[in-house]
Design goal:
This protein is an alpha+beta fold and 109 residues long. It has three helices and two strands.
C-alpha cells in the first residue's frame, strides 16, 4: 500500500511506541553512582541482610529496596548494602515476581 500522509506507515502498521524502550532515567550511573556507592559502603560496610541473620559479611552491592521498575527511587532512603549472595537471592525473587530490569547490562547497582 502506498502511504502519502508523510508517516510512511499505513493505519494497519503504525510505528510502535514501545520500539524505543525508555532507559531507567531515574537510575544514577557513572561517577555519581561510584560516589554514592562509596558513601553507602563507608556508612554501612556490612551486608544488611546478613547482619539481620547474625552473619558478618562485607557489602558489595548498592541495592534498591524497592526496585526502580516497581516505582522505587534512586535515593539514599531506598538503597541498602548487600553482599553478592543476598543481592542475587533478592534479584531472583524479583524476577520470579515478573520484575524486569530496564537496564540489565549493569550488575553493580
Amino acid at each position: 500500500m502506498l502511504v502519502r500522509d508523510g508517516t510512511g506507515r499505513c493505519p494497519k502498521h503504525p510505528k510502535q511506541s514501545w520500539t524505543k524502550k525508555p532507559t531507567a532515567a531515574k537510575r544514577i550511573t557513572g561517577r555519581p553512582l561510584q560516589r554514592l556507592r562509596a558513601e553507602l559502603f563507608a556508612r554501612e560496610p556490612l551486608c544488611r541482610e546478613c547482619r539481620r541473620n547474625g552473619v558478618v559479611k562485607l557489602a558489595t552491592q548498592r541495592d534498591h529496596i524497592q526496585s526502580l521498575e516497581e516505582g522505587g527511587t534512586d535515593t539514599e532512603d531506598n538503597v541498602q548494602p548487600l553482599c553478592d549472595d543476598c543481592h542475587d537471592i533478592k534479584s531472583k525473587a524479583e524476577r520470579a515476581r515478573g520484575v524486569k530490569r530496564s537496564w540489565a547490562g549493569y550488575r553493580g547497582e
